[in-house]
Amino acid sequence: MSRLWRMGIALALASTVLSPVAAQEYPSRSVKIIVPFGAGGPADNYARILAQHLQDTLKQPFVVETRPGAGSFIGTSEVAKAAPDGYTLLMMSNTHTVNETLRPNRPFDLMRDFVPVAPVNYSDLIMVVHPSVPANNLKEFLALLKAKKGELNYASSGLGTPYHMAGELFKAMSGTDIVHVPHKASGDARTAVLGGHVQMMIDAITTTAPTVQGGQLRALGTTGKTRSNLLPDVPTIAEAGVPGYEATIWLGLMAPAGTPQPIVAKLNAEINKVLARPEVKEAWAKQGAVPIILSPAEFDKYLRGDIEKWAKVIQTAGIKAQ
Fold this sequence. Notes:
By secondary structure, this protein is α/β, with parallel strands linked by helices.
């Protein structure tokens, strides 16, 4: 027994000695970032921007792969099962913190099966309707919803996504009834609204502003505390008719549980350097996104707080997975 005990101690000491060395050499080959959402959405777009910067500084390919479906479960499950070596990362969002309460039968536990690496950014959302909808502003849309209770639809990229939760929060706070139509990815949901097959969507302002500016969709309100600098003429939903309403989308990176702490720390440091660059801040501001710079420990606290926040919203509003 003593021999086995000594061997265990030796292995533990060896791992603590080797980890910093591994971090210095990391990455020695390509790193994969799995996006569990559709191509062309905010998570995909910002993952690619971040990947390019990391590739330039760390001198290894950072490859983004989209794995949409099942409300983010497909891609997330793939990362949960990956080797904890820093070569497979997850681009996640508040979809994941919502699902901790909304989807109790999920095949993974966020804070057990992953380790926080770094947040990326946050941005407001925007409520848009197809031009055929007979409502020019939010008050008219609220009146329409009350007159046609349960007859109109809103699109999202799946259960538990920020777009879904923003819609359910809107329903709860406005006392209206609009039917949720989940899609496989945000691009599919967007296409449904652009085509007039679904009347409304609460979407990422970073990707939807051009369709509003081009007249393809009509904006009724943004979801932040203040108006967006992208569309300053569009009021917030709170000021336009639903006082106190607020919802955002944020993104971050996690790695499989067991990933060596020095590798996590190195990734965090490199990501934070990217986010602190003036050109990145300026470019993202024009898209309505704000960088979030936190340590792994601070991001861990942020995640746990967001899980608790959405648990209260889901329970209070009685939101159910469909």
